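Sample intake — Dihydrolipoyl dehydrogenase
Collected from: Celeribacter ethanolicus
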Amino acid sequence: MSDTSFDLVVIGAGPGGYVAAIRAAQLGLKVACVERENLGGICLNWGCIPTKALLRSAEVYHQMHRAKEFGLSAGDIGFDLDAIVKRSRGVAAQMNGGIKTLFKKNKVTAIMGEAKLAGKGKVEVKTDKGTETLTAKNIIVATGARARELPGLEADGDLVWTYRHALVPTRMPKKLLVIGSGAIGIEFASFYNTLGADTTVVEVMDRVLPVEDKDISAFAKKQFEKQGMKILQKTTVKKLDRAKGKVTAHFEADGKVTTEEFDTVISAVGIVGNVEGLGLEEAGVKIDRTHVVTDEFCRTGVDGLFAIGDIAGAPWLAHKASHEGVMVAELIAGLHPHPIKPNSIAGCTYCHPQVASVGLTEDKAKEAGYEIKVGKFPFIGNGKAVAMGEAEGLVKTVFDAKTGELLGAHMVGAEVTEMIQGYVIGRTLETTEEELMNTVFPHPTMSEMMHEAVLAAYGRALHI
C-alpha cells in the first residue's frame, strides 16, 4: 500500500469497527480499517447472524410438527444438520460480502492483517506481504471479545464446544450439557433441544437468563422445561472428566456433588475482551478485567485513542457497538453527538420463546429507590397471538409512580425481539405513561399487548 497516512485508523471490523469506518468516511475523513480475520467480526461471522440462521431452521422444524393444529398435514418431517449449517454459513458469507461492498462504496481502505499500537498516532500492521506502519490523527480500537474458558472446562472441539464449535457441529449431540444460561447458552440449548437433543442447562445463579426480570426468567424456565429441557439452577460444574465419546460432569449444588454423563458439552460462561498484543498498556490505556476503561464518549484518556464495542465493556451487544462507532466517528469529525445511554439499549435473546428487555427490572427499580407501578399482560389475552398459535407469553412494564417515566419493559414470547423497539423509542423520547396510553396501536397486532401492559400498570387494562 503506497499511502499510509489517514485521518482515522480502526482496528477491528466487527459491528462497531466497520460502522465507525463507514460513518467517518461519509463525513469526509480518510479511513483505514484493519481486520485480522473476517470483515464483520464475531457478530456477523460467528455470532449474531449465523446463530439466527440456525435458530430459524429450528423454528421452522418446530412449526412443521405443529401442522395439524393449523389444519395442515406434513409427513416425513426431518432435518439435515449439514444442510442447516451450510445455510447458516452461507448467510454469514453473504453479509461479509456486503461489508466489502460498503467499504468500496465509501472509499474505506480495508487491510487484512494484525494490528498493534506503535506509538502516538501510529499503528503497525502485519500482513501476508510484510509489516507496515500506518499513521493517523485518531485511532479506534474495536477488537471485540472471545469466549471465556474456565479451568477444567476448556473446549477441545470434540467433546467440549464453545459457540464456534456449536455453529459448525461435526455431529448432532444426543445428550447435551450447556454450561451457562445467558443469551449464548440458552440460544444453543434451544436450537439443539428443538432438533431432539436431550438437553440440560446448568446455571450458577438462582435463575436462568439471570440478567432478565424475575417474572420473565420464571416464565421462560417453565416453557423450556415444557419443551423437555432440564434446568439446574444454583449449580456449579466443578470439573469435566473426558473419555472416548463421553464427558462426565461433576455438579455441585447445596454442598452436594453429583455426576452425570453427556456426549457433548457447550461452555457459555461469558466473554473476555481481546486486549492482548495491541500495545494498549504501553500506550497508557487502563484495562480492567480484560476490558478497556473509557468515558461516556469512548475516550481512553490517551489523546486521539478510542475504544468501542465489547472491548469497552457492557452491555456486550452488537447494536451498542455500532452506535458507539457512529458516535465516535461524529465526535472525531467535529460534530456533537449524544453519549450512549446503556439503560436504553435493548437486550434480545432468540431462544424459543424469545426474550427481550430494556431498562430496569422490577427489582433493580426498587433497589434504585423508585416508587413503582408494574403492569403485566399475557399473550393469551391478545387475538393476534391466539390466531398465530402463540398464546404463551408475557409483557411487563415498570413505571416511576411519581413521574410516569417508563423505567423498564420486559417480554417473553413470539416475536418480542421485534416488539421491544417500541419501548426503546419510548425511553429515548422520554415518553410518559399518558403518552403511551394515548397512542393508538393497530388491531389485530401483537403490539397491542404493549399498550395493555401500560394500561395494566395503572389499573386500566381492557382485556384481562
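Post-analysis note: The mean pLDDT is 96.
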